[in-house]
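[Automated response] Your request has been received and processed.

Submitted sequence:
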Amino acid sequence: MSAAPSLYAVTKEMLVDGKLLKKESVLIDGQAFSFSRGPLSIASLEEEWFEDLRDPQSAIEMLRRCKPKPDLFTFCQRIPETEPRYEYRIEWDSLAVLPVSTYEHWWNKQQSRASRNKVRKSQKAGVELRETVFDDAFVSGMVKIFNETPVRQGRPFWHYGKNAVTVKREFSRYLFRECLIGAYWGGELIGFVMLANAGRFGILGQFISELKHRDKGVNNALIAKTVDVCEQRGLRFLLYTDWRDTTLVDFKRYSGFEEMRLPRYYVPLTRTGALALRLGLHRGMKAALPAWVRALLRDTRKAWLEWTSPRQTGAEHQAADVAQ
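Generated structure:
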């Protein structure tokens, strides 16, 4: 007879929406599961991008024994497993994914001509792309980029206003699995990528450049260098957030990203969780709103940010990011 799965509570500090928060977690068979806060408590595998869930049924049984018990448990299949393997309630994650074979194939076959020209433009402008290290000089460059503007892509920017001590503390936590790629102009850091290694694929973590250098095609050059690094490290896919995020969909498409739909499973653990699942509240109140209401709220937020940030509007930020 196999041993009963282990279960004990821990408290961890996690970076959530740009802020370090303490979250309760439990360890089940050596895997950490964290609980969301709010009216609906949802448990998920803490490292779901970086590890496969070993035994869903064992995790469900043990989560039901937690006190307090989470209302829902959600887990997903990782890239590139698009075919459902389990019979739990399924919804689909829509991700922007770039299949990586060789840099040459990406350069000639996957990205658009406009994107290719942007990379050439960056080379002519003297932008240098290289792998770099997380030292004080790099952190200083990060702070400079973060504090350029309080608004990006029509949204308040999470990392605006942070000093070097805070940035170093928050972004040094996962360096053990990250590769840093810097874009330099005149010896100055003007953009960077923090590429996380998830085993089968890479994840574009922090991906940002200075808006004042948008005429140099910095973001396109960073993508090009990231594809090259993925090939070198044997990462067969590159993940870049949600495909449905319309603010950057053109940039993703021109750079060779395509939609990949992966199954996400939801398992109710309480009556509240079952009711929330039936009413569609498990993805949050915002997702439960009609599309036209979400669009109205998004436009209202954008207009407010443009009015309160007259020097560099959200529209300009969005256009700059998409253009690159």
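Summary generated for your ticket: Confidence is low (pLDDT under 50) at residues 312-324. The chain is about 35% helix and 30% strand.
If you did not submit this request, please reply to this message.
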